[in-house]
Amino acid sequence: MNNSYNIENRDDISNFQRFLDILYKKLNKNPVVEEISKQVEDAETKAFKVLISTVLSARTKDETTSEVSERLFKKIKNIDDLLNIDQNELEKIIYPVGFYKTKAKYLKDLAKIVKNEYGGKIPNKLEDLIKLPGVGRKTANLVITLAFDDYGICVDTHVHRICNRWEYVNTENPDETEMELRKKLPKKYWKIINNLLVVYGREVCSPIPKCDKCFNEVKETCPYYEKLRYFSEILEQYNFKKVSKNKIPEEKGTYILKIKLNNSKNITFGKNRIERFKKGYYFYVGSAMGSSNNLKRRIGRHLRDDKKMHWHIDYLLKHGPIKEIYISNDPVECNISRDLMKMFDFVEGFGSSDCKCKSHLFYLKP
Q: Which of 97, 161, 186, 366 could form a disulfide with 280 if both were Cys (CB 3.0 to 4.6 A apart)?
C-alpha cells in the first residue's frame, strides 16, 4: 500500500470513505499490475511495463497476467523490442491471456505510435494514452497512478459495481462512475481506490456477493448488505421458500420472481408507457389465489417463451430471465409489496393496477 496515505478520524466523512479506510487497514494484497509496478525503480521502464501488463490483464485472471508478463518481459525490455518482435511470436508468448491475438496486434500498433509520435516514451497524459490501441480510460488512469504517481481514478467493473452498491454514485457504466468520483471523491483516495476495490471485489463483493466473508465493521454500514438482509427477513416473515422451475406446486399462494436484466434498456409496457430499466435484479411480486388458478399455472405462464403480453411483467421477461422463484401459501402479495417499498427502489404502477399498492416490482443494483 502507499505509505503516504493517512487515515483521518473525522466525523464529516461519508460512510463510503470510512469503508475505504477500513479496507486500507484490513487488506494486505495487491492486484498483479500494482505488484509489477513495485518491482521497477526506473520511471520509464515502469511506465512501459505497467502499460503492457494492463493491456494484457483485460478479461484475464491475475495469475495468468503475472505468468505471461514475466515471460514477456524476459524477451521484451522496451518499445524497440516490441516493435521488432514478430507478431506471431508475440502471440505465442502472451498466450493464454484473453483475446491474445487481438492484444498482440494492439501491442504492435501501440509500439509504432509510441515510437513515432512520442519518441519511444510512454505518454503521461490521459488524453494521449487513450489514443493508443487497446487503451481505454481504465488502463490510462492506471498507468497515470501507478507509473507516474499522478492523480487519476481507475474504474473497472469492480470499482463501478461497489461504488454503486454503496450508493456513493448512481451510474450505468464505469466511465460514468469515474466522472462522478472525480466530482466528489477526495483526492487522497484517487490513487488507491482501484487497488482496494479490485481486491475486495474479487474476494468478497463479487457479482454474487460473499457477505459471510466481509468484515463486520463494513457490514454495519453497507446499504447493499442491509437490503439483502432485509429481503431474507421478508422471506422468513411471510413463510417463503425457494423452489425450482420444475417443482412449482399446484397450490394457491403468493410468489416472488427474481429477474436478471443484463443490460439497461428502455422497455415499453402497459398502454405504450416507456421506462428506463437499469441493469440489475428485479423482484416481481404476484399471486395465484383465484378459484381456477394456482402457483404452477400462473408462474408457468411467466416461464413460457410464447407469452401473450397480457401482464406488465411479460414485457420485462422478454429482456431478462427468471433466476429464482420464491413461493408462500399465504395471501400476502400486497403486504410484501408495501414492505419491500420501504427498502428498495421500485417502478411505480408496475403490476399494481388492480390494487392500491404503488408497485409490485422492486429493483436491486447488480
A: 366
- CA dist., res. 224 & res. 221, Å (int): 9
Grid coordinates in use for 301? Answer: 405462464
Distance CA 239, CA 216 (A): 28
CB neighbour class for 74 (10 Å; exposed up to 12, middle 13-18, buried from 19): exposed
Tell me which residue of 122, 159, 121, 132 sits closest to 31, measured CA to CA.
159
Burial 140-168 (b: 16+ CB within 10 A, else e): bbbbbbbbbeeebbbbbbbbbbbbbbbeb
With CA atoms as reference, report the closest residue to 350 among 288, 267, 238, 242: 267
pTM score of the predicted model: 0.91
- Which pLDDT band holds residue 5 (cuts at 50, 70, 90)? very low
Q: Name 146's Cβ contacts closer than 8 Å, sequence gap at least 6.
A: 33, 34, 37, 46, 50
Q: Which domains does the chain have, with CATH numbers?
A: 15-203 (1.10.340.30), 229-364 (no CATH)
Phi (first) and psi of residue 25, to 5 degrees: -75, -35
pLDDT tens for 185-230 read: 999 999 999 999 999 999 999 999 999 999 999 999 999 999 999 9
According to the 3-state scheme, what is the secondary structure of the chain? CCCCCCCCCCCCCCHHHHHHHHHHHHCCCCCHHHHHHHCCCCHHHHHHHHHHHHHHHCCCCHHHHHHHHHHHHHHCCCHHHHHHCCHHHHHHHHCCCCCHHHHHHHHHHHHHHHHHHHCCCCCCCHHHHCCCCCCCHHHHHHHHHHHCCCCCCCCCHHHHHHHHHCCCCCCCCHHHHHHHHHHHCCHHHCCCHHHHHHHHHHHCCCCCCCHHHCCHHHHCCCHHHHHHHHHHHHHHHCCCEEECCCCCCCCCEEEEEEEEECCCEEEEECCCEEEEECCEEEEEEEEECCCCCCHHHHHHHHHCCCCCCCCHHHHHHCCCCEEEEEEECCCCHHHHHHHHHCCCEECCCCCCCCCCCCCCEEEECC
